[in-house]
């Protein structure tokens, strides 16, 4: 999707366009500007472009890696590209996940070069003051540009901060501009979870507040377990967190597509940008917090982007992620990271800068307790018994002796838990080559941290689980609702302070076991 294609077309006054496709502009930009045009694109993409004049070609991937792309090499010296690893595993001895923000040119020695070089990429500490209005307006623009569509669409609504903000901005835009919804006269929202899960309750409340047609989808632990092999085949990873979260998203996507929806907006990326994971409570200083957010964004293509794209596209559904808008990321990553630090003494919880930007007393975007709802990872929020059920299933299939020999069976990225071992076994059944297993990163992690951040707390070395429950006891609220700050926050001293909709229609659905 090239969101600025109309703007780019206006620069190509002497070019004749033959279709209404937003992607047609790519060929014309290449003809006009050569390989340097890629940085002009605002959107999510991965493509290969063949120049028939000299048989040269280029391949490129979007800045963050929202769209998947793999690159492989055959024994005969041939170069291969595919949006799925499975297309390369039989014909290529070596293949990699094509790095985000890069371009490959057949004309260049070495081929690969980076085209995306934002200021934050160097990980130097930024110093821009906190401007809530700039954050709010930048995000609203990111959401609205992704409503460029002529197909029925909706919003994935977990009831957490990120997806709720997406739904709120979309709902406001549709109401204020009377944009055609393409599907009835109300915005449709979707949530999945085990019955009684935290997400289902919160999502219903947000949907009521915004007046959406809300689809509450239920699944059981057994239905999720039954889907695991198919999920791993489609997602192409053995990463524990990604599989835990991909499975309910995979089940939900199937149901959404069956209802006629072809595009959804989703809330991935906010936690990486703003330090929203619970382990960020332990960030020792703003320098380490900023460097960790940089590392997390750079790795998104291996985790949440991979999940959001492949769990949906497995059913022909397209997911768009406004938090990963290039311009919005640049604004958010230019902030002095001091304002992203979690400070209980100042009443600042995780992602406070984002929450505060949308804390509008005159025309609230969300109910206050939703706006300040504590972080839940998707795999936790769909129901805590989901993760417990996965662990029980793995324990029943992986013996202690298998774990003892794990380093001999899997010397690369050796699994350290029975759950990880089980996923690895399934993955290797579909993707047995060493090149495939090397596309998945390894290393210790707690609550989705990088290996570097594990060093922030010595106790974490004994709690290496990617669930949010491994940090700070996610079952307990870290903050009382609407708790007043204990002292004056210096970040707010010179910052702009940002100045109900109807009841929703709830459509309850169940994903049948036979659906997978």
Tell me briefly what this model is.
The record marks 268 as: Important for beta-aspartyl-AMP intermediate formation. The protein has 516 residues and is an alpha/beta fold.
Description:
The chain is an alpha/beta fold. 37% of the residues lie in helices and 11% in strands. The protein folds into two domains: 5-117, Glutamine Phosphoribosylpyrophosphate, subunit 1, domain 1, CATH 3.60.20; 125-496 and 506-515, HUPs (Rossmann fold, 3-Layer(aba) Sandwich), CATH 3.40.50. Strands 12-11-8-9-10-13 form a six-stranded parallel β-sheet, sandwiched between helices. α5 links the parallel β9 and β10 (213-218). α4 (161-177) runs parallel beside α5 (198-210), α6 packs across α15 (384-397) and α6 (221-235) crosses α18.
| Derived structural class | alpha/beta
Q: What can be said about the biggest beta sheet?
A: 6 strands, parallel
User: Unreliable runs, pLDDT <50, ≥5 residues?
Assistant: 473-486, 496-502, 509-516
* Count of discrete domains: 2
The CATH superfamily of the largest domain is known as HUPs
Radius of gyration: 23 Å
Seen as an oligomer or otherwise, the chain set is single chain
Mean pLDDT, as a whole number? Answer: 89
Q: Quickly name the level 1 CATH class of the largest domain.
A: Alpha Beta
The overall strand count is 13
Estimate the global geometry from the Cα principal axes: globular
Q: Order of strands side by side in the largest beta sheet?
A: 12-11-8-9-10-13
CATH architecture level-2 label of the largest domain = 3-Layer(aba) Sandwich
Distance from first to last alpha carbon: 29 Å
Strand content of the residues, in percent?
5-15%
Named CATH topology of the largest domain = Rossmann fold
Report the helical percentage: 25-40%
What count of helical segments does DSSP give?
20
